[in-house]
Amino acid sequence: MPDAIRWENNQLHLLDQTLLPREVVYVHCRTHEIVCDAIRRLAVRGAPAIGVAAAYGLVVGAMEQGTDASRWTREHLERVRADLAATRPTAVNLFWALERMWKTLEWHWGERDLLERLAAEACAIHEEDIAMNRRMGGFGAALLNDGDGVLTHCNAGALATGGYGTALGVIRAAVEQGKRIHVYADETRPLLQGARLTAYELAADNIPVTLICDGMAASLMRRGEVKAVIVGSDRTVANGDVANKIGTYGVAVLAKHHGIPFYVALPSSTIDLSLKNGDQIPIEERRPEEVRGYKDCQWAADVPVWNPAFDVTPHELVSALITEKGVIRPPYDVNIPRALRG
Ligand code: MRU
Which domain holds residue 315? Predict the structure, then answer.
């Protein structure tokens, strides 16, 4: 499996996920504008991966002024930060990572080794994300039983993170423990992250996967094939409401109807306690062409389109949040802050 994000010799290379699974091509990000473009067009995507890419993006942007930090201007760096922050609004990891990078910049402003410090912070964000995924995998795997069929929506795997994955990390960990897990992957219209990325990732790891169209999940559940649903998140707020890929809410409603547990796997960098409930989460709306067709192929007439990239699943439908701090159960308004403190 190719890495989604590579940082080598102070250079950023992002796997262009829009070309998967047919082609493995890396975008060499020589400028922060290239990083912004990669985030906007989903060459790099998935909340934790967007955060990691933005952290490296700030380093790339800083280096546009040369490697001697004494020549850097604040104005340029503020523009780089603003450009990166304006790429996608929903995944809070983007803002979390930029804030962390900015603190490093503030603390060490004027120091000769500022570039090394920024690069080290971005690498730390990257490595910590993988470590968090492995920890949450350990906690989450305990919720799955040998022989389970598990449904997932979108791609919350190694490609969506620094590595290993959140929802797919839980599944990977269960498989590593010797449990036989069969994954059902929603194709995830309109941009097909499930069909193109989740199916590819799991097949590469020899984890059994069956691809279904989004509209098939209900019938699959009715047949008793799904024992648990696990998804990732782009932003989870104080009351436990979860923003994730459009269609997640529908899957949660279906899971409730069929008495199937609905789990959300996420690192603490995806939790935004500054927002009280999911109505406050900014939801990205994308181009109508993404719904009228795919890439160069248009199959719908030029009718109006509504294309929100994410939806909000109310906390009542969430059986548990799986984090690197442990498994958090309701009431979330009490137990999320408690878990984050602990
Ligand atoms: O539009 P995308 O592909 O960035 O959306 C990704 C998702 O919705 C993921 O489920 C979420 O970011 C969690 S990834 C660990």
Answer: 143-341
Task: Tell me if residue 184 falls in helix, strand or coil.
Answer: strand
CA distance 246 to 193: 11
CA of 220 to the centre of ligand 1 (A): 23
Provide the domain count of the chain.
Answer: 2
Contact 192, 184 (CB under 8 A): no
Catalytic site residue from 129, 148, 234, 272: 234
Give the integer Cα–Cα distance in Å for 243 and 270.
10
Provide the CATH number for the domain around residue 304. Answer: 3.40.50.10470
Query: Which tokens go with 251?
Result: 């899957």
Q: Which of 154, 268, 311, 321 to mutate to test the pocket of ligand 1 (most atoms within 8 A of CB)?
A: 154
pLDDT for 342 beyond 90:
no
Q: Ligand 1 pocket: which of 193, 264, 291 to mutate (most atoms <8 Å of CB)?
A: 193
Check whether residue 188 and residue 63 sit in a common domain.
Answer: no
Any domain includes 137: no
Residues 167 and 282 in one domain: yes
User: Using one digit for the tens of pLDDT, what is the confidence trace for 97-150?
Assistant: 999 999 999 999 999 999 999 999 999 999 999 999 999 999 999 999 999 999
Q: What is the pLDDT of residue 119?
A: 98
**The domain boundary residue, chosen from 74, 109, 132:** 132
Q: What does pTM read for this prediction? A: 0.98
Q: Is the pLDDT of residue 316 over 90?
A: yes
CB-CB neighbours of 282 under 10 Å: 13
113 is catalytic: no
Instruction: Show the ligand 1 pocket: residues with CB < 6 angstroms.
Output: 42, 45-48, 91, 154, 156, 160-161, 166, 193, 232-234, 244-245, 309
- What rounded mean pLDDT belongs to the chain? 98
End of a domain among 113, 132, 151?
A: 132
